[in-house]
From TrEMBL:
The protein's name in its UniProt record: YlxR domain-containing protein
Lineage, broadest ranks: Bacteria, Pseudomonadati, Pseudomonadota, Alphaproteobacteria, Acetobacterales
Origin: domain of life: Bacteria
Domain Ribosomal protein eL8/eL30/eS12/Gadd45 intervals: 69-146
Name of one Pfam family that matches: Ribosomal_L7Ae
Domain YlxR: 1-57
Amino acid sequence: MIRFVVSPENRVVPDLAAKLPGRGMWLSASRDVLDSPRTRQAFARAAKAQVSVPDCLADLVEAGLVQRMLDAVSLARRAGQVVCGFQKCREWLTSGRAGVVIRSESASPDEFSRLVSGRRSLPVVTVPDRVLASAFGRDRAVYAVMAPGALAQRLIAEHERFSGVAGRPLPDPTGVSKEQAEL
């Protein structure tokens, strides 16, 4: 779910942290819902006033959720709760220190299978390429592993919301398509 509030200028604003003042209006984290023409009417009814809804509301929410995922990974990096790079990730996975595996959208399915071999029970979060690169200050980063804890749970929750709003299928973390899984 995503919370929205009405600003003093009567504009609908996404409240991704759910901390802005005002009466909150909650919508499902789905691109179909955010792009629906009925959503504009629903905001006006819920606010009991005429409100202005940005045309690119879904894009604003998507960009905000990407930023929240970046913030979670960056905070975990500063706290020493996440590592980047195939070898370091593999060490954390084999030692049992991993709580979440993070991969970029452009990651190779074959390489990912080698990375997590034997540890398929861990949650996998697929993020846009720039999230890991920005969080670690690199030109390119493909994999990261985060320790279990509150930041890992926050990243998983933000990823679930992002997946619904993104409106495009993210790569399957196992590298196996639905058709292959049925065979």
